[in-house]
Amino acid sequence: xxxxxxxxxxxxxxxxxxxxxxxxxxxxxxxxxxxxxxxxxxxxxxxxxxxxxxxxxxxxxxxxxxxxxxxxxxxxxxxxxxxxxxxxxxxxxxxxxxxxxxxxxxxxxxxxxxxxxxxxxxxxxxxxxxxxxxxxxxxxxxxxxxxxxxxxxxxxxxxxxxxxxxxxxxxxxxxxxxxxxxxxxxxxxxxxxxxxxxxxxxxxxxxxxxxxxxxxxxxxxxxxxxxxxxxxxxxxxxxxxxxxxxxxxxxxxxxxxxxxxxxxxxxxxxxxxxxxxxxxxxxxxxxxxxxxxxxxxxxxxxxxxxxxxxxxxxxxxxxxxxxxxxxxxxxxxxxxxxxxxxxxxxxxxxxxxxxxxxxxxxxxxxxxxxxxxxxxxxxxxxxxxxxxxxxxxxxxxxxxxxxxxxxxxxxxxxxxxxxxxxxxxxxxxxxxxxxxxxxxxxxxxxxxxxxxxxxxxxxxxxxxxxxxxxxxxxxxxxxxxxxxxxxxxxxxxxxxxxxxxxxxxxxxxxxxxxxxxxxxxxxxxxxxxxxx
Length: 532
Fold this sequence. Notes:
One of its GO terms (molecular function) is flavin adenine dinucleotide binding. About 30% of the residues lie in helices and about 20% in strands.
C-alpha cells in the first residue's frame, strides 16, 4: 500500500482530525469533493479531545453550543460535557458522515513544501508516505502541542514528571506528594480531581485566575427526548446560548470597565469557599477579569481550602533533586510534578515544517508574530488555509462557531480554484502581503480597546507582547467577513496543463454537486444515527 501511495496526488489534504479537520472533511464531501485525505498523527480521531484525558477534563463551553450546526446532538448528558462525551461525539461524526475512508491514522506531517512550478504541496509523513495536494487545510489547532517550561534542574528530578495533555494513567497518585504547576483551565480541573487521593498537593501559582461558578448539571431524560423529537427546541436552546455570548462581546472588546460587576460575582464565589483572608489575597487577581481566560469551577476553591493542599503564590524557579523551589524561595519536596502549563499557541511546532513559495518556513515568516488574511491565509503560502489561525480565538464563546465560518471560506476557496482553473490548468491563490497587512492592522487597532490589552500576561500574547490569538468581535461578524474569498486580496498563479497530468489521483476526483439535496441527506442520516 505504501508503494502505491508514494506518488499519490489528491485535490485536498487536511491535517488533523479534531473539530477543524473533521468539519473540513464533512464540508468537502457535502460540496461534492471526495478527492481528499485527512492526515492524523494519532491512532484515532479527536485532536485535543483525544489527547487530553487527565482527571476532570471537561469543556467550559455549554454542550449544546459545542457541536456542529450540521450535526446536532440532542443526547448531551450534561450542560457542560466531559472529555469522553466530546470525543464520542467526534467519533460519531466521523462514522455518520463516512469520513474514515479518507483518514490516514499515524500519519504525522513531517515536511510540507510548496512547488511553485507544479502549483501543489509536496507532503511527507512520519510513515514515509509521500503525496501531493493542490490545496491544504491545516487543522492541527493551537491546543495540540504541550508546552513545558525550561526549568533548571528538572532533568535531575527523581520522581515522575508529565504534562496534563500527556497524562500517565499507569502512575498511581494515591499517597503521593504531588506538585501542580500552573493555574490555567487544565490545572483548575486537575486539582480538585486528584486532591482527595494524594497525600499532599502543592499548587505553584504564578498568576491567580478569575474563577466563576460552573452552572453544570445533568440534562434530564425528558430534555433529551424533547430535543430529539422536536429539533426546534434543541435549535432554540443553542440560539439562546449563542445570543447571550454575542451580547457579552461589547464588554470584552470595547468597554472592559463593564466587567467590574462580573469581578464582584467571582470574588463572592471565592469567599464562599475560602475563609482564610490571607489565601484569598493570594487568589485575587490584580488584572481586569477577562484579560486572561475566565475559568469555571465549583470545586477548585474548595480543593485549595483542604488541609492537604498548599498554595505557593509564586512560579516554579528551579528543581534541586526532589525539591521544587519557587521564585520567592519557598520549597516543596514532592514525588511527582504535573505541568498544567498550556500549549504552543503562538509558536505552533507545525509551522517549522511548512515551507512556502520562497523556501521560508511558516515559523520564519511569523518570527515577528503570526498574521493571516481573515485568520486563514498567510502570504507566501499559496493554497494553504489554517483553521483557527491567527486572531480567530474566542474568550467567551464556542470555537465551533469560528471553525464553521472558516469552513465556509474553505469551500468558497476550493470552488473558486476550480472555476478559475477550469480545463486549462491549475491555479493557486497567494494572499497579497498588503492585504494581510491591512487586515492585521485592522484587527490590532480594534484590540487596543479590548480587555485583552489591559495589561495582563496571558497565553493570548506572543513573545513580542502582541495579541495574535483572539478575535476582537462577535462570531456573527467573523462569519460575515469570511463568507467568501475576495480575489482582489490574492495573487492568482496559473500553470497550464500540458499533455494531461502525470500525477495519479486517488478517489473519485473533484466533482462539485450543487444544490441542497446532499446536505439534507447528511443531516437526516445524523438524526437517524442518533435515534437508532
